[in-house]
Amino acid sequence: MSKFWSSTVRKTKPYVPGEQPNEADVIKLNTNENPYPPSPKAVEAMRSVIGDDLRKYPNPTVDSLRKVIADREEVKPENVFVGNGSDEVLAFAFQAFFETNEAIRFPEITYSFYPVYAKLYDIPYQTVPLKNDFTIDVDGMCNSIGGVIFPNPNAPTGVALKLNEIEKIIQCNSNQVVIVDEAYVAFGAESAVPLIKKYPNVLITRTLSKSHALAGIRLGYAIGSTSLIEGLERIKNSFNSYTINRVTLAGAEAALQDDEYYDEMISRVTDTREWTTHQLEDLGFDVLPSQANFLFVSPSKVTAQELYESLKREKIYVRYFENLEDYIRISIGTENEMKDFVEKVRHIIESIKI
Ligand SMILES: Cc1ncc(COP(=O)(O)O)c(C=O)c1O
């Protein structure tokens, strides 16, 4: 605490990101990054813009990338907003659509950045417990006073809702904005983008950080009715006109046009997810059915914290959340990384039995 801090800084509770160890030989399964490299076409596109033009500001309205996204999603460019990672898009959306005197709702177990934004912007919130099977309670999300936000699939559980359940949440909050955070949708869940044509109150957010292996360039976007997109633009243009740099713009455009590369890579990740699920179930773990690039598991024979710490000693990083003490979250790595991981887990469990 410093006497120079504003009251805003004093009341913040900043998000704590997963560890980013510096050692080279670790297996990093803790921040849901993609274990495979980005599309070579995206890398080449980024290289090709590193030159004299970097002296100029980038296009503030991101026209070309918005057109690429709009064509893919079968919407108009006016339905697309682009931000510096989906975290930035979410932060703008909290400011643009939620009020300081109307409680918003989100699931009790969910992406831990939502309460951080709510505190930063003084937005009250209510959390809705998950059902016993760890699915989001659709009825509990209805009739919010201030709006709703949830990821689909949810994080850190990986469990997804069906499109008709999402539609129900949108319908039963028709006077509020419903944000569906689709950070992980490409790994198997149904997208709610088609619903933006029917409902003016739904905003979908996406990121290139997970499915497109581009966490390092920070590119996220939102799709929604033109009035919601205009609201986001007004906040962005009151904050920073040039949020997306030239290199990121070039990489994102090329990546979003290389489906052949990404379809193959995403199936490798989902195949490895299914393989890892079976291996851990054989070891007696409780593994939630995941539609994402990570697994949320409750170990057998060891506590989640013991397993997290033992794996870390073996240079394997997974995510342990102190408030979810029976579970750890494991991002899906390459086939070889997951083989190593399963072997180490087996070894840790066996050594504890002795
Ligand atoms: C549910 C969810 N939403 C959004 C994000 C933010 O992604 P980014 O800011 O990299 O686009 C994450 C990142 O872990 C996430 O788990």
From TrEMBL:
<comment type="similarity">
    <text>Belongs to the class-II pyridoxal-phosphate-dependent aminotransferase family. Histidinol-phosphate aminotransferase subfamily.</text>
</comment>
<keyword id="KW-0808">Transferase</keyword>
<dbReference type="InterPro" id="IPR015421">
    <property type="entry name" value="PyrdxlP-dep_Trfase_major"/>
</dbReference>
<dbReference type="InterPro" id="IPR015422">
    <property type="entry name" value="PyrdxlP-dep_Trfase_small"/>
</dbReference>
<keyword id="KW-0368">Histidine biosynthesis</keyword>
<dbReference type="GO" id="GO:0030170">
    <property type="term" value="F:pyridoxal phosphate binding"/>
</dbReference>
<dbReference type="InterPro" id="IPR015424">
    <property type="entry name" value="PyrdxlP-dep_Trfase"/>
</dbReference>
<dbReference type="InterPro" id="IPR004839">
    <property type="entry name" value="Aminotransferase_I/II_large"/>
</dbReference>
<dbReference type="GO" id="GO:0004400">
    <property type="term" value="F:histidinol-phosphate transaminase activity"/>
</dbReference>
<feature type="domain" description="Aminotransferase class I/classII large">
    <location>
        <begin position="25"/>
        <end position="344"/>
    </location>
</feature>
<feature type="modified residue" description="N6-(pyridoxal phosphate)lysine">
    <location>
        <position position="210"/>
    </location>
</feature>
<comment type="pathway">
    <text>Amino-acid biosynthesis; L-histidine biosynthesis; L-histidine from 5-phospho-alpha-D-ribose 1-diphosphate: step 7/9.</text>
</comment>
<dbReference type="Pfam" id="PF00155">
    <property type="entry name" value="Aminotran_1_2"/>
</dbReference>
<comment type="subunit">
    <text>Homodimer.</text>
</comment>
<keyword id="KW-0028">Amino-acid biosynthesis</keyword>
<protein>
    <recommendedName>
        <fullName>Histidinol-phosphate aminotransferase</fullName>
        <ecNumber>2.6.1.9</ecNumber>
    </recommendedName>
</protein>
<dbReference type="InterPro" id="IPR050106">
    <property type="entry name" value="HistidinolP_aminotransfase"/>
</dbReference>
<keyword id="KW-0663">Pyridoxal phosphate</keyword>
<dbReference type="InterPro" id="IPR005861">
    <property type="entry name" value="HisP_aminotrans"/>
</dbReference>
<dbReference type="GO" id="GO:0000105">
    <property type="term" value="P:L-histidine biosynthetic process"/>
</dbReference>
<keyword id="KW-0032">Aminotransferase</keyword>
